[in-house]
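#structure-requests
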Amino acid sequence: MQKFILQVLLFFFLFLTAPAFSEVFEGRISPANNGDYKEQILPCLKSAKKSIYIIMFLASYYPQYPDSPVNLFIREMINAKRRGVNVEVILNQSDSDYSSHSTTENLKTGAYLANNGITVYFDSPKKTTHAKLLIIDERFLVIGSANWSYSAMAKNNETSVIIDSPELARSYIKYFEKIKKECRPFLSPLQ
């Protein structure tokens, strides 16, 4: 009898607290781990028709390695912008002295993107934006551990998922816009 009462109490607790959990979204989910990330993300960027939103802790552009995975992503973002796709990027800049590896890389990448017409924002040096988020065409989301760096694409074990869910994408676009309000636009030296 005691076990039954505990089960009933547990059921009511779960039932009453369920609305306290975040919203539930439906969608199709695919893994994009390690080398699969590039193979799955590149076609998504190439086929973007409406929008690309990115929040990235570290994005490293490698001028000396034009065919590196990150450079291919960046190239496709620039191509998308040229065909009329709205492309916006938020990069981390959490160091007040601007000397850390991630800040140095993000400033270099931000300048390259901005010089090619991409709208780039940097977060406040007082806050770390550690997210790795990509939203394509208000439908596809890529969320995971992978930065856009050589190590993440070639050396590390990284886990990411691609989620096909317009409803969830809209939710994360709101998140993007919320973070963007705390950021400053990047003005490249060529602008």
